[in-house]
Amino acid sequence: MKIQQYYLACLSHASYMITDEKSKTAAVVDPQRDIDQYLADAKAGGYTIKHVFLTHFHADFIAGHIELRDKAGATIHLGNRAQAEFACVHMKEGDTVEFGDVRLEILETPGHTPEGISILVYDLATSSTTPLAVLTGDTLFIGDVGRPDLLASIGVTADELADMLYDSITEKLVKLPEATLVYPAHGAGSMCGKSLSKETVSTIGEQKKFNYALQPMSRAAFKKIVTADQPEAPEYFVHDAILNRQERASLAESMATSFKGLTLADVLSLQASGAQILDVRDGLDFEGGHLKGALNIALNGKYATWAGSMLSRDRPIVVIAEEGGEEEAVMRLGRIGFDNVGGYLTGGMSALSNRDDLVERTPRITAPALAEWLSGTRRDIGHAPTVVDVRSEAEYAGGHIAGSSNIPLTHLAARFGEIPADRPVAVHCEGGYRSAIAASLLQQLGRQDVHDLVGGYKAWLTTSLPASSSSPLADGEPTTLHPGTP
């Protein structure tokens, strides 16, 4: 038997295919919505995908259980407490599925969600009593546990979920043999926890040593530590968690209607009627010239997560991409359930080659140039700008440009009125990805004097320019930090 991990970096998501050579049977756990890789690998190995498991109703992506049911004829398996619109097999504690030398046994491990399960994997050719691995979904991560505050269900509070999580960890998972391999559903970068490791596999023994949430502690202490300092979850999470419970269109059906070329006239007409223009090119290319009113979320970063955070599901989306990148842009929106794509601009920006009246640019500024401007030594370019830091509050507290204002990117539209209208604006994040989004949003909202700091806060520090920390000194004044300061 074999456990194959598929890691989707842009969503920090891990899925698995468990195959058995004897029966030529496969089971897929927590699949992504685009399932071609599972089908291709199964075909190459001569396996039939007969089972698909969801460890819980995921919030950060749309799972591919419907697609595997429709394409491969797989039976969908869910936890006993899962309530779904589609036909499925509900599995309770101790229930098993066996094929050849593989046994999959259910542990009910609620806490991140009420219906959460973990799956013990036995290689029966080696042992029928000692599990080889446990697929923990979002209950146990490498270095962390699933947050209980993310999606408290109707009738179940975050506090009750934290109680469930404590029991799932202390009464079940930590009692497994220490050599048991741990395969979670997410890694570093996921908002389903706060301290996830970049590693994608571990053991129960390693986690008992190094995972902060698995150290011996009281129930009250556990609940306090696992709910503290959790990142803000995107609004689309609730939508996806609900959609994963529902009978819905497959990704192929969605792509059949959303992946279509549009003329510039079509795009302008859709924009005038309220469509969202999404430019997925790199920030540098976008800022060199883009369709007025477009929002930039580049494909080369956490595209799906930021698209889900910044776009509306209730209005059509029109994609502008480098030629050849349109299908990926639309498909990756489908991964998070954004099936409201109206099409893409045929030819990309080349369609605007003779329409300078429709093109807007975003000035970029280096860290030394911004420092000069802020110091007043660059009077030739006007009043010093308002510096808006669009990182999270925690990032800002750890160090920031002195005098800057902190408006996290997801709050920028709502707090737009806080930015003085009589001064230029310079926006930045940590490295430049989020600030390109922010600059495009500010221009979309009507600001014409927006500058994007090249390289973000990292560039500011690398250039040895001073920064402030929100950590107060004894007299209450902010401390000034320089590169290399601990």
Helix content: 25-40%
Name given to the CATH homologous superfamily of the largest domain:
Ribonuclease Z/Hydroxyacylglutathione hydrolase-like
Number of helices, where a helix is a run of at least 4 consecutive DSSP H or I residues: 15
Secondary-structure arrangement, i.e. CATH architecture of the largest domain: 4-Layer Sandwich
Shape: globular
Q: Which strands sit side by side, in order, in the main sheet?
A: 1-2-3-4-5-6
Q: How many structural units, i.e. domains?
A: 3
- Secondary-structure-based class equals alpha/beta
Short overview:
The protein has 486 residues and is of the alpha/beta class.
Key features of this structure:
486 residues; alpha/beta; Oxidized Rhodanese, domain 1; 3 domains; 6-stranded mixed beta sheet; 15 helices; 28 strands; 23% strand; globular; disordered C terminus
